[in-house]
Amino acid sequence: MSDDWHPRTRAVHGGVRRSQYGEVSEAIFLTQGFVYDSAEAAAQRFEAAGEDEFIYARYGNPTVAMFEDRIAALEGAEDGFATASGMAAVSGALMSMLKAGDRVVSARALFGSCLYVLEDILTRYGVQVEFVDGTDLDQWRAAISPGTRAVFFESISNPTLEVVDITAVSELAHAVGATVLVDNVFATPVYSDAFAQGADVVIYSATKHMDGQGRTLGGVILGTQEFIRKTVEPYMKHTGGSMSPFTAWVLLKGLETLDLRVRAQAGSARALADALQGHAALARVLYPGHPSHAQHALVQAQMGGSGGTVLSLDLSGGQTAAFKFLNALTIPVISNNLGDAKSILTHPATTTHQRLPQDQKDALGITPGLVRMSVGLEDAGDLIEDVMQALEKAQ
Questions:
Q1: What's 27's DSSP letter?
Q2: What is the model's pLDDT at position 127?
Q3: Number of helices and strands (H, E) in the chain?
Q4: DSSP letter at 348?
Q5: Side-chain-side CA neighbours of residue 364 (13 Å)
Q6: Does 350 share its domain with 390?
């Protein structure tokens, strides 16, 4: 693969391992184990496996390695480890590097499962976790003290779409020797420049845009070769969170069209945000790519102006209006995924973030009327018309 290739070319040709048959479409090596020519060869491989030598599918597999190489090339990372789900990637990245007594500083605005890992699991094993307002650099500055082991945040928060300044937070973290881990799902690999902006580790739920068609669960942890192979891999291969070969093959196919799909979805999301500004039924329209967003200037610098594929709508009539709106839609579906070819709407307060106490929901801006909309590949005009008629029925 050439270093001069553009991202769209890397997403099609990166990481290919062709067998002796010279196949065009990547092969699925649907096997758990591998055969050795001799007992001596087995012993040698277990002692020091070569670059293209595999031992057991929980440790690595040729199809999975193709996906890891391709997404690493696309993201600008040295290496990657593919996982069974996005949450396996989040928990694996954190658990593999932390021990009792370590300190983590995290943005407060997180997906519900991420909050569970930080609040319940890590603290159960003696890790100290402090939460801050991710948009407030003064809070980051006060919290990131000497001895901080890791800093964690979503580059765009779920579901209120707050944007964290990756460069500024990374500078604060690196000044005390902390590792910066970024959950980058909402930014997508298409609009991400997280490593260049200071992130040490980038985490994706591949379930979202990389698959993008509602078929598989998957995740990936990206970072330096030393971090991936010396820290993440030993933990993941012994705890069993690795990706299946079939999932890796599906995701390889998804990466081929990732750029085209995400750009189309982001364009439709912006069109919806434009059309919905000032609607009488809405208290807020949240879209990072729209000039009305509080951090629009940061989005311009950090993501090249795109706001991604997700917007959030806050209906003035609260949960009653939100449910009427959701039930009146005819094109989007009600579900809790995002980054799909189909437009998907979610009511976070009663689904993805329902376990949060009300005071935390209030602090995060997760109101009873808030609806998250992941914009799909449908015609933008059809989506706008459908959303408008549903809002009228919700009033």
A1: P
A2: 98
A3: 16, 12
A4: G
A5: 26
A6: yes
Residue 301 lies in a domain: yes
Question: In whole angstroms, what is the distance from residue 275 CA to residue 283 CA?
Answer: 14
pLDDT at site 19 = 85
Token pair recorded at residue 80: 């990657």
Q: Among 203, 221, 254, which residue terminates a domain?
A: 254
Give residue 84's Cα distance to chain centre: 14
The per-residue DSSP string of 144-178 comes to: --TTEEEEEEESB-TTT--B--HHHHHHHHHHTTP
CA-based nearest residue to 265, from 343, 331, 318, 354: 343
Length of the chain: 395
Within this chain, do residues 263 and 324 fall inside the same structural domain, yes or no?
yes
Residue 217 lies in a domain: yes
- Rg of the chain in Å (alpha carbons): 21
pLDDT tier for residue 11 given thresholds of 50, 70 and 90: confident
User: Where in the sequence is the domain holding 79, given as residue range(s)?
Assistant: 7-254
CATH number, position 280: 3.90.1150.10
Contact (Cβ atoms closer than 8 angstroms) between residue 102 and residue 127: yes
1: in domain? no
Statement to judge: residues 310 and 228 lie in one domain: no
pTM value surpassing 0.85 = yes
pLDDT reading at 3 higher than 80 = no
Which positions ≥6 away from 197 have C-beta within 8 Å?
166, 167, 170, 302
Determine the average pLDDT of the residues in 179-186: 98
Instruction: Over range 176-183, report the average pLDDT.
Output: 98
pLDDT at 15: 87
DSSP letter assigned to residue 33: B
62 within a domain of the structure (yes/no) = yes
